[in-house]
Amino acid sequence: MSVTVRLDPKVKTAIAAIGPDAWTPIEYTDAVFDETTGTWISRAEVAEIPYTAFSSRKTSEHVPGRLVVRRIPDLNPKTAAGQGTLFDAWRFHAFFTTVPAEAMDTVAADQTHRGHAVIEQVHADLKNSALAHLPAEGFTANAAWLVLAVIAFNLTRAAACTAETSLAKATTATIRRKLIHVPARVTSSAAD
Length: 192
What we know:
By secondary structure, the chain is of the alpha+beta class.
C-alpha cells in the first residue's frame, strides 16, 4: 500500500533530514544505463526515511512506516542563457508506505507507486469522458454504460496508437479532437 502525501511542514522536515548520501539514481525520463558501473545515470533520485503517519492523533492511531521521496531537478525556464545556479533546486514527490523494506526496496517501491499513477490517469480520463454521463437510474443501466465506456476507451487508445505516436499518451478529449473533430470539420467545409 502506498499513499501520496502533501508536502506539509512535517513532511518537509522529514525530507530535510534525509542525508545527502541516501539518494539513489533511478530509471526515469531520459535516464541512461551505464553498463560499466551498472547504474542508471539520471537526475531523478529516490530515498526514504522512517515516518509515522497520524502522529497528531492518540498513540494507538499512529501508523509507522516509510516515507519514500523522489526528487527531480526543478529547472527554471525563465533563467537567461549562460546564467547558472549556485545550487541544485529540487522538486519532491513523497509517498507513505507500510510495506517493509525487506519486502520492497526504495527503488521498487517508487516504481510500484508510479505504476499506480498510470491507472489514476486512466480513471481521471474516464471520469472526464464517458463516465461523466452515467445514467445513474439503475444498476444494470450503469453496468452496461460502464462496459461500453471501457470498450470505447480501449478503441480510442488503439486508434491513437495506430494513428500517431504522439497520441499514445494523450487524453481521450485530445484524441477525439485530433482524430475526429478536426478531420470532420475539414471534410464538411470541403463539401460546401
